[in-house]
Write a structure and sequence with these properties.
By secondary structure, this protein is α/β, with parallel strands linked by helices. The chain has a single domain, classed as TIM Barrel, CATH 3.20.20.100. The protein is 35% helix and 14% strand. It is built from 10 helices and 8 strands. An 8-stranded parallel beta barrel has the order 1-2-3-4-5-6-7-8. The longest helix has 16 residues. It is globular, with a radius of gyration of 19 Å. The model has no long low-confidence stretch (mean pLDDT 91).
Length: 289
């Protein structure tokens, strides 16, 4: 699993996740040193992550390959302007990151390909690949319902999706195998569900207290299997060998040390009964509603 870890940067110098944690700049420097020392080779970032691209640009020193993202298109942009807008987004990110080429450039919301001017957005990002600005192109998705439509219409290299012991949509109905048949790489994120899966019920924020039944089941499962939440979450992910990358965000340098030291649980422990279909829990965008 260690060689698949990708360092997430959503909490670099900004508040992120359920515990509202951020990593300050002096800690980011130490975190990148530890990651590099342990052969982590890729950082995942985005222009929407506040100043993270600029921070990475100052601290990277060519140690890491970079995955970044194209944000949602502006509402009032004209069709004839879209390709230039995509190029400008990429150029700004390259400048902030102080690099010449992306490992992969994703659309921050892959569903945008199915909306108005989706073809123009795709042609814009595809041109960046043909011009050598990015090695791969892909999409980040939240809603799996639209994935099949995207795959039928567009040729992409990589998909980034949420996947964790509560949110098992990726492995339902042989979806993971079907994606791999297209020879598409899969990176998973939200492996701790923005840190929620590492918390006990009494540590949950008020807006998630209504999920007591789910948390009792989770805590009882951990007790029965004699594992801690961190080990359970990462072992669940690493038991799926077809995954190409695991985006992991860390609250601090000690958490990354714990992740790197963690011994994977051998054998596929039964976790299907923890699969939750309630989007109000597994989709963090809905927590505040």
């Amino acid at each position: 699993m260690k060689n698949k870890i990708i360092l997430g940067s959503a909490n670099f110098d900004q508040v992120y996740g359920i515990k509202k944690n951020l990593i300050k700049k002096n800690q980011i420097k130490k975190l990148l040193y530890l990651a590099s020392k342990n052969n982590i080779k890729i950082i995942d970032t985005a222009p929407l992550y506040n100043e993270s691209e600029k921070i990475i640009g100052k601290l990277n020193k060519n140690r890491f390959k970079i995955i970044s993202k194209i944000p949602n298109k502006p509402k009032n942009i004209k069709k004839c302007q879209i390709k230039d807008w995509v190029k400008n987004c990429a150029t700004n990110s390259l400048e902030n990151l102080n690099i010449k080429k992306f490992e992969c450039l994703l659309l921050h919301n892959g569903e945008s390909l199915l909306k108005k001017n989706g073809n123009e957005i795709y042609e814009g990002i595809k041109k960046l690949k043909s011009n050598g600005i990015t090695k791969k192109i892909g999409i980040s998705i939240y809603n799996f319902n639209s994935l099949n439509k995207v795959l039928k219409k567009f040729k992409i290299d990589l998909i980034q999706v949420p996947f964790n012991i509560f949110d098992q949509r990726l492995i339902q109905n042989n979806l993971l195998k079907r994606i791999k048949k297209h020879k598409i790489q899969i990176h998973v994120r939200s492996v701790f569900l923005q840190g929620v899966l590492l918390l006990k019920y009494n540590q949950l924020p008020k807006k998630l207290k209504k999920f007591k039944k789910e948390w009792d089941k989770w805590q009882n499962w951990l007790k029965k299997n004699k594992v801690n939440p961190l080990q359970a979450c990462l072992s669940f992910i690493s038991n799926h060998s077809q995954l190409d990358g695991i985006v992991v965000g860390c609250d601090n340098i000690n958490q990354l040390k714990q992740i790197l030291k963690l011994k994977q649980l051998k054998g596929k422990f039964s976790s299907h009964n923890l699969n939750i279909k309630n989007n109000k829990l597994i989709d963090p965008r809905k927590w505040s509603k």
